[in-house]
Design brief:
32 helices, mainly alpha, 4 domains, Serine Threonine Protein Phosphatase 5, Tetratricopeptide repeat
Length: about 625
């Protein structure tokens, strides 16, 4: 007790009395009260000072934060240092109330590299991990903008920032904004990136068609062949299935070899962005398939990998992903013998889904074997030709506009398959129909719709051609300027524009008359099935071409007449009128080019069909000599 009393006296600065008395107690009480008030005021000052920096309770600190905000935006480090000397700790406190951001966030968003590097050196590790109101650290902001130098300065001081916060990681953000250099750098810090994050990024990059980023992640990742996903499938299996269902995203072998050297040059990188990404996709699939083959312990394991839970080859053939099939079949042609749960091979799937690209790939790669063309493939024993005879899915028909061209496409496809399996064309199962009878029944409605469409189109075009023929025929006998009463010759017969008028008018008359006859032939046609293969597309192409020539020549005759009346080649008015008269020609091309293009494509396909007949010889020989075992 005595020692405690001595300590109190020493702290309060009161001499310990020799005797007790009221005066002593009063002086002691006064000293204790004074000491307590001073301690409370000191603590209150400290907390008020911290609160003023963080919450802005003070006009002076408000001015300091505003100044620091401007300095961070402009990269003015000298001003920031001065503010730090005057307001200790202000560099690490929130200075932007709306986003809850510090000077580091603001300078990073404004890409002030030098400012950020000096600021990072002054801040603690905890300060680097401060999040704004959206849960983003300054590194996340740098990943969004692709600020690689800024990111390096932060990661070098605190590497665990790569892990991110609130389920937001800088590497995922950088991948989302396609900052490949940033992704490559962040992925190089492997010790601080969880494998699950890499897998999530890999799946996301492939799903979003960022194959260049996926290639970066895949580098040296052979362990992906055994890594399981949530469905207990290997991750590579899932990724290859995703790529199998993505047509028109992978470059072919020929394109890869042709463009690989060109795209490496910076001048081509922007111009060939789509081609570059397709080549990256090709390289990525090839890398993944190489890993699969390396880790496959036997041929049976490789087959099981391809067909479980569904065959990725059949998925690719179903959507026409020719390039994917090319990569897998290039070194493993035996995969062509794989059948799905319905007993269908890749060839059957290609026929069923009208995928001529897959159909031709099997030809060009010379992968045919008698077993690849099994005549029956399911319990109903439907042949390849019967499969081609059935009506296609509407999504396949919609590739071509116009019922007549859809019917042409279906008939041409049937004819191609018919040539391949010619020996079984006329086979008729007991109580069933031939393939041709199935085709007629399945396409009855499409044929009727195509007949109505082509006759309706021909009727409209013939009306226009008749009007043009009437106009140009009349113009031929009422020439511009009239005739000389004495000689009977046209007054402008010596003018060069009169020659242009006569030639244009004559061509317009002939072409419009030809169009009338062609469209009349379509109107009187019975539109049999075989007519859709060649004659109807030919008559449409020639009729539309003749109609276009007649319109063009009519406009030329109209312009020549104007120049004849005004007598000067450089007269402004006839030039303006002739230019305006060209507007109908422009709109005719714009509105009718698709119809004409489809007709030309159909006609070209029918012509090329004759070349396909040459391909059947070796196949038919194989079928004749082969033994088909179900």
């Amino acid at each position: 007790m005595r020692s405690f009393s001595s300590s109190v006296h020493n702290v309060l600065g009161v001499e310990q009395p020799q005797v007790n008395g009221n005066d002593y107690l009063k002086r002691l009480k006064s000293k204790i009260h004074t000491f307590t008030d001073g301690l409370i005021r000191s603590v209150k000052y400290i907390f008020d000072d911290e609160r003023s920096l963080s919450e802005g309770n003070g006009s002076g600190n408000d001015d300091a934060r505003c100044s620091l905000h401007k300095a961070a935006m402009n990269g003015n480090w000298e001003t920031a240092e001065q503010l730090e000397r005057e307001n200790l700790g202000i560099l690490s406190v929130v200075i932007s109330e709306d986003r809850n951001e510090t000077a580091l966030h603001i300078a990073t968003r404004c890409n002030q590299v030098g400012f950020v590097q000096k600021l990072v050196a002054r801040l603690s590790d905890e300060d680097l991990g401060i999040e704004n109101s959206y849960g983003n650290t300054a590194l996340c902001i740098a990943a969004t903008l692709g600020g690689l130098d800024i990111a390096k300065s932060m990661v070098e001081k605190r590497k665990d920032l790569i892990g991110g916060s609130r389920n937001v990681t800088p590497v995922l953000i950088a991948a989302r904004y396609k900052h490949n250099d940033m992704v490559s750098y962040l992925l190089s810090q492997k010790d601080h990136i969880a494998p699950e994050m890499e897998l999530e990024l890999l799946v996301g990059a492939i799903s979003a068609n960022h194959y260049d980023i996926a290639l970066i992640i895949l580098k040296g990742k052979d362990w992906l062949a055994t890594k399981l996903d949530i469905n207990q499938d290997t991750l590579l299996h899932t990724l290859l299935h995703i790529m199998a269902r993505k047509p028109n995203t992978i470059a072919s072998y020929k394109m890869t070899a042709k463009w690989q050297s060109c795209i490496e040059k910076s001048v081509f990188k922007c111009l060939c962005k789509k081609t570059t990404m397709e080549i990256k996709a090709h390289q990525m699939v090839a890398n993944m398939w190489s890993i699969v083959k390396t880790n496959a312990t036997s041929k049976e394991n490789l087959m099981n990998f391809v067909i479980h839970p569904s065959s990725m080859l059949h998925d690719a053939a179903r959507v026409g992903n020719v390039e994917f099939l090319e990569i897998l079949l290039h070194e493993n042609p035996d995969l062509l013998r794989i059948f799905d749960n319905d007993g269908k091979s890749i060839f059957h799937v290609a026929v069923e889904n009208r995928q001529e690209g897959v159909f031709n790939l099997i030809y060009d790669m010379k992968l045919f074997n008698p077993d690849d063309l099994l005549y029956y493939f399911d319990a109903k024993k439907i042949s390849l030709l019967e499969l081609a005879a059935k009506s296609a899915n509407p999504k396949h028909l919609d590739r071509v506009s116009g019922a007549v061209f859809q019917m042409h496409s279906e008939l041409l496809w049937f004819k191609v398959v018919e040539n391949i399996v010619e020996l079984t064309t006329r086979v008729k199962r007991s109580g069933g129909e031939t393939a041709r009878e199935i085709f007629t029944r399945e396409h009855k409605e499409l044929k009727e719709e195509g007949e109505k469409w082509v006759k309706r189109t021909a009727n409209s075009c013939m009306l226009v051609a008749t009007l043009i023929a009437t106009v140009v025929f009349t113009a031929a006998f009422t020439v511009p300027g009239g005739k000389n009463e004495s000689s009977g010759l046209p007054i402008f017969v010596e003018k060069k524009w009169f020659t242009v008028f006569v030639i244009s008018d004559g061509i317009a008359l002939v072409s419009s008359s030809t169009a009338i006859l062609l469209f009349l032939s379509i109107l009187t046609s019975r539109c049999a099935e075989n007519d859709f293969l060649f004659w109807l597309p030919l008559e449409l192409v020639c009729g539309l071409g003749s109609l276009f020539v007649s319109v063009l020549c009519m406009v030329l005759a109209f312009g020549a007449a104007f120049f004849l009346y005004y007598g000067k080649d450089t007269a402004l008015l006839p030039l303006m009128i002739t230019g305006m008269a060209a507007v109908p020609i422009f709109w005719f091309c714009v509105l009718q080019w698709k119809l004409w293009a489809h007709a030309l494509v159909s006609l070209h396909a029918s012509t090329v069909f004759c070349l396909l007949r040459n391909r059947k010889t070796s196949i038919l020989k194989a079928i004749t000599n082969g033994v088909f075992v179900r």
